[in-house]
Queue: 4 jobs
Job 1
Amino acid sequence: MDQSPSLTIGAFARLAGLTPSALRFYDDCGVLEPAHVDEASGYRYYRPDQRRRAVLLRDLRTAGLPLPEVGTVLDGPIEAAREALEAHRRRLRRDAETAMAALDRVLHGLDSAVATVLGWELAAAIRQVLPSAATGAPADEMPVLGCVLVELAEDELRLVATDRYRFALRVLRPETPGGSGSLLLPAASARELATLVARRAEVGIDLGRRELDGQKMTTLDGEFPDYRQMLATLAPPRHRVLVDRLALRDALGTGPVLLRPGRNELAVGGRALPALCDPAPLAVGFDPAVLGPALDASVGSDVLLELTDALQPVVLRSADQGAFTTLVMPIELPGEPR
């Protein structure tokens, strides 16, 4: 076989899978010299048998081996070559792990929804909204209604529950909010979570990873009703009644009850409770099994009732805690004027 230096730099570059500029660079570095350089023109010529060294050099550079170590592998003792390659493999592995960790942080940041809140406050919020979550057949038929929606948006952590007859919303201000996202906690998981965090000073919730302080939470995939749209369509209240919360709770009894605002009193069935309100030509019926838990979940001695008409949801606001809102659907009592 003719091994004469008959290949121009362009032809040899194509044979070895390199570029002419790379061959010139490797010549200048002394790791791949041409077989012959024409003194008159300066043209470089290569022998075909130099391809093996060129391909090896190409692979080593593709692997990122520094040129000084390339020389060791190409021309040094085999043990030195092996040691250089093993050291470089370890270096590549460390670099890859560092790069992957950095990418994980960036990707996590793109969908980040992390909030730090007080443990007791989160526990209280869960317990406040849970009574509005569906149970029994309604929850079996539509599992998302048996859940608490946990939503981070606009620097607020919102906990929401509804069975379509009741609605509860509690807003928390995280210590360190970040991003936006949501998840659904089944009622049983929410109760366990409330017990778990009640005695913790602070807890970190990662809605993207569905983790609480690094531990996975039991969640449900599904689409929660658009509560924001529902709130946006509520008519402005026509009447407001401020009444003692526990007195109203005690007056409900066990059967359907009618509420009538009077002058500084609220008629509840056959009882008149002191209240801050004006007389209104309005009578609103309630099921105590629905209104009672909403009153139990409220905070403070007083509760504010916002009434529109006998058929529209009634908004209950805690006088001592404006961050908690409950809606209760009234019922129609036969024979009662509307």
Job 2
Amino acid sequence: MKGLVIHQFGDINTHRVEDFVDPIAGANDVIIDVHAIGLNFPDTLMLKGKYQMWPERPFIPGRDAAGIISSIGANVTDFKIGDRVSCQVLWGAFAEKVKAPETKVFKIPDKLNFSTAAGMVTTYNTAYVAVYERGNVQAGETVLITGASGGVGLAMIELAKAKGAIVVAGVTSKEKGQIAIAHGADHWIDLSVENLYDNLKEQVINAIGENLCDAVFDVVGGKVFDASMRCLAYRGRMVIVGFATLDISMPKGHHILLKNISIIGAPLDINFKKSINVIHTGVRTLFKLWETNQINPAVATIIPLEQITQAIETIENRSAKGKIVVTTDSIRL
């Protein structure tokens, strides 16, 4: 099969699509003939050796894929050959075939195409854990979402709106603000302004009033996290979803104490090990929301596998606009 193979960690443009040995299903695994692959920010870290896991090399990276099951292990009971599925794996998705444990595979609705299914896996699973499971957003609450024009940010906007919340989107340009509004945000504010620490709270007050936010969902970290903390109301919830800037958030104890603030972590991957039911409940919820048109996991760009490194570079340098999905069909043809 063809896949993006990592021989040594390094710059994204040093890696190539090449032949690699086909995966073989273990007793609890399925093999999926991949039709579409979703790209995510953690992929940029994995290729450069900056992610928290270092697979033995050579290996194929990639988390999200969708396609058709072509082989199953002896102990697999929930799937059969020919099922249309998506999966989320630790690595291995950037190829024509992927091996996935049965617990990390999800049957997709008949009308959901492979590109959309692959594009929504990590982003919407992350958003579900943050908004539904950890952030516990309720109807009528006001929430601030930073990094709101990215894949996870847009998914959180849609899920918060599905919950009946008022959503303030934190972005870095008018164009990105308009994207957030198109996905359902009620207001957008500018995270690129000078003196963000003071200015962000002023923007929030201008948008929603003096009562401030019931919850903040931060995917950025660093100075954005610090400024966002000041936008929380009494007993507000600060939900840490990620650190896109790689600047680790350091909450100040007196801020937490004075407003009785809760600091909540919302990691995705650990749920596969500790709380697998959360993942599967989330996937069922997401597919129901899609079927009832309450979320719109739109794909902005579809590119062939041969161009995957160029696409990942646009995610790294933040020039990507919307979700990028890779297709293997051009190689098959």
Job 3
Amino acid sequence: MIKVGIVGISGYSGLTALEILLKHPHVRVTYVSANNTEGSLSDIWPQLTGRTNLYCKKFDLKTAVDLCDLIFLAVPHTASLEITPGLLNANKRVVDLSGDYRLKNIKDYEKWYGAKHGDAKNLKKAVYGLPELYRQDIVKAQLISNPGCYPTAALLALAPLSAFHGHDISSIIIDAKSGVSGAGRKAKLSLNFTEVNENFKAYKVLHHQHAPEIDLYLSKFSNHQLNVHFVPHLLPINRGILETIYVHINEKMGFNELYSLYQKFYKTEPFVRLLPKGQQPEIKHVTGTNMCDLGLEISADSRLIVITSVIDNLVKGAAGQAVQNMNIMCGFKEAEGLV
């Protein structure tokens, strides 16, 4: 049994992490905090009434260190930079759900997130928490940088192709769509019900902070520089991501070869499902799960591959993947608490 804390319990990812961990047989949640919210969790989240007696206060390093073995940071970017060093110095294990430790070049972080970094030491030791690709590194890690929601769907969709045919790829276009919870729980006019309902729009076109994250890890998989054209959209739904990814290739590839590549690559993965030929994934089939569903198609001239990828942005795209990482770090069954 390990003692776990959640910093950022007032947000959707923090809540989702708690709901998963309350059912985990090897975890006891002993600490929760939030910067601007204080009170019993049943007051903050009425759906937790009768399920926990935890009380939320402002983050306190000493209390967190005293009460926890491992801590989830479900906080906005820059907030993790202030909290993580103290936790690591106290020999605590950390799973950070923010973007603070994903990009390995500080200048890239400052360009895309618009803030100073200031923790180069821990940036170097952070392990990117995409279990399907970095499982062996996660086992030994003290600090996990949980992937972003859009990159999770994109990287799982593109990893097999980029790893084995990276040099044949001439361009990648990612048309991504996310539910409103991906923007967090903050009050903002553009996220109001009347602004989102019966509406559909693109935002941060070619300028979203998840684009360099996708570029970085795709290029690592392929040992070849790959850059994506990434366009996110806001869907008028609560949760879920669907990405339609268009990959132009230089050398022709048949559908059976493509399908076999993905089938072998993900054969033993518990949370990636490759759909049969002719079927395409749907958001409602992954909502509330840690699954990533993939669909494949190829053009008549065998030079355009279309990959569709769906996840729940709060589960596989955030809290569920964080728990998956915790399971690997702690030697639990990888799917514990997630199925």
Job 4
Amino acid sequence: MDASAVSVEERLFSLVLALLASEQGLGKAEILSTVQGYRQRYVLGGNNASLERQFERDKDDIRELGIPLETLDSPERPGDTQAARYRIPKALYELPADITFSSEEITLLGLAAAVWREGSLSEDSRRAITKLRSLGIDTDDAVIGYAPRLRVREAAFTPLTQALDRHQRVRFLYLKPGQKKPLLRTVEPRALVVHEGRWHLTAFDQRARAPRTFLLSRIVGAVEVVAGAPFEVPGPGQAENSLAELERVWQGNVATLRVLAGSDAELRLAKRPGSTTTRTGEADMWEYAVHFTDLDIFADELSGFGPEVLVLSPAPLRQAVRHRLIQVRELHAGAGA
């Protein structure tokens, strides 16, 4: 296996298991040549300096988890790290007897770790996952399909998180649907929240002189910090207020759809929160009332179902879906010409 394919948490987990399994401890060469995540890069008799530095960082990470990693000096060569041995005493590592987890708590711990597996929070999450797994805590396979999908893939997330923590103004190019060119926005970040599985930035837009909400997926290019003194945050509860506003928009937007029974569209739309259904006069059609937050995102989703969905209302959503379907038809007609 390529070393790059071994995740950080897998390497740390393998190291913890190896050090737990050896009462006498393991030497550095033994660790680097045998433990998953190191052995793939180990060169017998060669230069392993970078790998040794990685091992030193991993030791610090493991100790930050509260795991008692011990260093045993060689009696013949005290102070020589090449001759030292490393171990984790089981008696000091195991959970106290009075601490137990129910199956529900174990499931929630595992899901919480899975949520923060990527993006700028990945280091904390990897440590959490390593700690949970090395303690023998694992999630129930039956709930794997219900793991929250909060993957931080947008490049804007990390710089926005840092700016939010430091109260720094930022600027970025933002492309709204229908615009030919992105516009430069300068904002004071207030909160980063997830709504309907997508990251949103709530910020005070200096050009509009008012609060605005931005989808991270629509930020184009790099997020730049604006020089100057940190701004003052209005007060606590910014994330809660942002989510409440997004919820208000979601509650106010309701689409009426006619959906083909037994189709992929019905399967997916029926699972959306708040959706309701009624029978129509046609045996193979159902009528759905579905909430949505962003018209363009929802139009993209509905147009992907093709003839399985007919939008009855609202008119702007119906028009947006129709426009997308016409574009697809014209694109295919041009390709066949």
